[in-house]
Amino acid sequence: MEEQLKMGVTEVEEDDEHDSKESVLQRYFLQEWKLVKSLLDDIISNGRVSDISSVHKIRSIERLTRTRQARCDELDPEGKPLVFADLNWSVNISKWGPNIGEQQIGMGLTLIPCKDMTPGLNSTSKASSRGEMDKYQEQGQLLEPYLESMVSPLMSIVRSKAVERAAASEEILEVIKPVCIIIYSLVTVCGYKAVVKFFPHQVSDLELAVSLLEKCHNTQAGTSLRQESTGEMEAKCVILLWLYILVLIPFDIASMDTSAGNNNYAGGDEPPPLVLKILEISKDYLSNAGPMRTISGLLLSRLLTRPDMTKAFTSFVDWTHEVMSCMSNDVVNHFQLLGAVEALGAMFKNGSPKVLVSVIPGVWNDTSALMKSNTAARSPLLRKYLVKLTQRIGMICLPPRHQSWRYVGRTSTLGGNITADRIETNRYNNYRNNDLSNFYQEPDCHDEEDMDVPDIVEEIIELLLSGLRDTDTVVRWSAAKGIGRVTSRLTYLLSDEILSSVLELFSPSEGDGSWHGGCLALAELARRGLLLPISFHKVIPVVIKVVLTEVP
């Protein structure tokens, strides 16, 4: 394998001078994919991970795709050019010039000076390079074409082993943990939405996945010091994501629960025992500080917004009310608070308005009260989640509407204009001139129906505007997105009022944070076509003032 890789790299290097950087980097990735494929084939043929080192090799190679902001224009202290050196591929990038940058690097190959090159494949150097990968961001599109060929066989192993060894919980976990490490590495690189599409989703898998999650959850008590490298966290995350797909089955979950008869399940609005198990474990994970908290919230958002989960949803909202009303400085309670707010935000994003509208008053009261508390003042992450929840409540309160006044940009091609018929060109020019004459006029909104905005929406807009003044960028950014989303469902007159409120953030008495939040909001409005040319005479002077202002 090593000799084949070296031969392939030699062939690639011969064509480097004549090909684009993107094609060269793509070929390097394909060379790495050969190694990944061979390791995966061994795992699939054996039905398990026989050598744990293969997991770490695959994981390290997958980490090499996190590179969007790699800098490749540096020299070492001796003035020697840096090279792509993972897997010890000596590819000098100096011939590409000093301006190679963000968009040109397609995978996170470790950058080391030429003098550090050593021949052959070295697992020690690969292990030491993992810390270098942390500074790289995700570039998962290189892996996406191969996701199905990786995820489907690995999840088949998880499913088959769970069926074969249903009684021996420890033996199952020892088999699936290394497999789940690989799957979760793909999730971190490509995102859960791209990966879960290839998870098995048979109706019979629901009970199997819940049983597997229960076994993973129960092993936590026997571990005094859990380390992520053991695969426990990865296994739980993968099974939660599996359930995230399985709870979408178009049947009543009670009819799928074979344990309902043994537990004297009465039926009706009461959730079946299978759902109660998921709720109990997911609530526990909402207090977790890691990714299990976010994934549990996603699972609950899919499960509790089902039409047959009305009572379970109401019960969960009551539980979140208790959590959000409890002001405590305890660290565990704080993580639970983050999990509860994040889960509610996911529900208001994925749920149907018919299910959510009945709980809006209570959830909004808890949200607005918590946003004004000292607990939120100390936690930027909590404020970010609260702003997200706020804007999603506003989206439920405002039905989607078509805005005839929204600005829609045009695109034209040079070739189309050259080859167009003269008559059609003149007709286009006449239309364009007439259209430009109305470019800066007030939009015709006579056909727009009057809109009765609920009082809660006005409070939501006020909170989002105050979020633009927040001291943390993540909160301001989330508030700006919320302003754009809520404005997209309002009439022109109401949207113009919001624009005026945003422009008030640029007064001299406001701080730098408010100016930055206002710029984010203006950019979001412009991106959605909600900033009309008629408003340019108010917006452009403000933007120029911001650009010319020196920030100390």
From TrEMBL:
Database matches in SUPFAM superfamilies: ARM repeat
GO-annotated biological processes: microtubule cytoskeleton organization; post-chaperonin tubulin folding pathway; tubulin complex assembly
Entries under InterPro entries matching the protein: ARM-like, ARM-type_fold, ARM_TBCD_2nd, TBCD
UniProt GO MF annotations:
beta-tubulin binding; GTPase activator activity
Residue span, Tubulin-folding cofactor D ARM repeats domain: 381-548
The signal sequence is none
Looking up Pfam families in the UniProt record yields: ARM_TBCD (PF23579), ARM_TBCD_2nd (PF25767)
Q: What is this protein called?
A: Tubulin-folding cofactor D ARM repeats domain-containing protein
Biological source species: Solanum verrucosum
